[in-house]
Design a protein that fits this description.
AcrR family transcriptional regulator, 2 domains, Homeodomain-like_sf, DNA-binding transcription factor activity, Tetracycline Repressor, domain 2, 10 helices, transcription, Arc Repressor Mutant, subunit A
Length: 211
């Protein structure tokens, strides 16, 4: 079997396990389903499940690595002349337009499953903190003075704003509002939130233009 075919098979197996787990979680609730039951339903060994998903929470929140890195990556990739705030606002609105799952867009059943699970809500809090840390590191890498606390303070403000908007998307989704309506409400919330940050952060971490 070629390396390409092996990788394709691994991706298929991973997706099949994830889909099976999600179906069981939605039917019975996250806390009630065991790894052994997921393995049996997916027709794989229990060790296969844990090899692909070391934590049970990863089966429900399986894009956690992209979620954690997202804000830092947007700042790192910002355009010349663009501030960190402007880049994050731009990317948030683009993600909102495409109804990105990383903003919280899902189904009402999935959103309620997250809200009803103490384990998953705790995992989300952990991911929020990791995302803030990653953003702080990206800003610190460009800070002029060693030991400058500003990047940490700015990261806390920006990450908290994204967290509040994510929570609003999840709450509206769980309440059964459709994606178009959610996007309209959250677009206005994001305008308010980013406008509140504008006076302090409009000129912070502006990428230099090429000379």
């Amino acid at each position: 079997m070629s390396a390409h075919l092996r990788e394709h098979k691994k991706r298929q197996t991973r997706q099949a396990i994830s889909d099976t787990a999600t179906r069981l979680f939605l039917d019975r609730g996250f806390e009630a389903v065991t790894i052994a039951e997921i393995a049996a339903a997916a027709q794989v060994a229990k060790m296969t499940v844990t090899n692909y998903f070391p934590r049970k929470e990863d089966l429900a929140l399986d894009v956690h690595e992209v979620f954690v890195a997202g804000l830092a990556r947007t700042v790192a990739d910002r355009e010349p002349g663009e501030s960190a705030l402007a880049a994050l606002r731009r990317e948030f609105l683009a993600a909102l337009e495409r109804r990105d799952a990383l903003l919280g867009f899902s189904s009402p059943r999935f959103a309620r499953m997250i809200a009803d699970s103490p384990t998953l809500t705790a995992r989300l809090r952990d991911l929020y903190e990791q995302r803030e840390d990653a953003l702080a590191q990206a800003l610190t890498a460009e800070a002029a003075a060693p030991g400058d606390f500003t990047p940490r303070a700015v990261a806390a403000l920006l990450a908290a704003t994204h967290r509040a908007l994510f929570q609003q998307v999840m709450e509206l989704t769980a309440a059964g509002r459709d994606h178009k309506e959610i996007a309209a409400v959250v677009a206005e919330s994001s305008r308010l939130a980013f406008d509140l940050l504008e006076p302090s952060l409009a000129d912070y971490a502006v990428r230099a233009r090429p000379s």
